Amino acid sequence: MNKNTLAAGALVLSTVAWAGLFFVGKATLSTLDPVWFTLVRYGVASLILLGLVRLAGPVRWHELKAHLGRITWLGLLGYALFGVLVFTGLQHSVPSHGAVIMATMPVTAMVLRWALDRQQLQWWAAAVLALTLGGVTLVSGVLLHPAGGASTIAGDLTAFAGTVGWVFYTRGQATLPQLSVLEYTAFTALMAVPAMVLFALVATALGWSHVPTLAGLAHAAPAMAYTVLFATVFASLAFNKGVRQLGAAQGIVFINLVPVSALIMSAARGVTPGPTEIVGALMVVAALMLQATLSARTAQVAR
């Protein structure tokens, strides 16, 4: 089995783990608000990741010190911003919507390559973008939603803003090639925690957030175990490993599996998605598959 196949497998597993997180996280938000949920999640995960770095060999603190600013900034974008905004959005939306919002990341990455890297968009890029946005519109219920139900646009837009942070985090890995995948994952998580603590304290003092009770933490423990071990430590390492091997542009395309997995999980739980949700999700997945196929062909022609 070649390295590219292993990388693809790692990316698939990471996206499946993230799909499950939307269901687990939605239930956990009843006892932990998004701010404290994110702090507990990454606070514990960063310690585990740092322990894994130590098991792999000496911790290269000098590399952390040498690139402290960039590592901290990427950690804030990929963990703090992403975690708080996505789960704040989830409070006002549903798991399947959050999964589809995550699936817009490849298109966001494509737009950023055009805007920031001055990489010319291919002829099919506009069609892919339009198809994706149309699918997200249907899933979010901007135009259509179940009778008596409320549109989730506010929550979905909040979650989308969080995903932009993860796209920047994914792009940032290429700027720190001297760090191993494990070091990049651990150091960025570790350096994001102090800002999370400060934000949690300020948000609590202002009444935007509430300190969880011991009973609440105990109740959320099983869900947090899944969140920390599988949806954070394992998924982040697997995703970053796949991106390191395949590159950010191709690696992030695998995010399109998140809504597929989420819809399957939702149906298995007895909550059948509505027709507009199914059509919207299929539009997003179709757009991302089209992007992956055509971008690969473009790359082959360029060679």
From TrEMBL:
UniProt keyword list: Cell membrane, Membrane, Transmembrane, Transmembrane helix
Keyword Membrane on entry: yes
Protein's cellular compartments: Cell membrane
Pfam families linked: EamA (PF00892)
Stated name of the protein: DMT family transporter
Topology in membrane: Multi-pass membrane protein
Record organism: Zemynaea arenosa
Principal location: membrane
Domain EamA as annotated: residue spans: 10-140, 154-290
SUPFAM superfamilies xrefs: Multidrug resistance efflux transporter EmrE
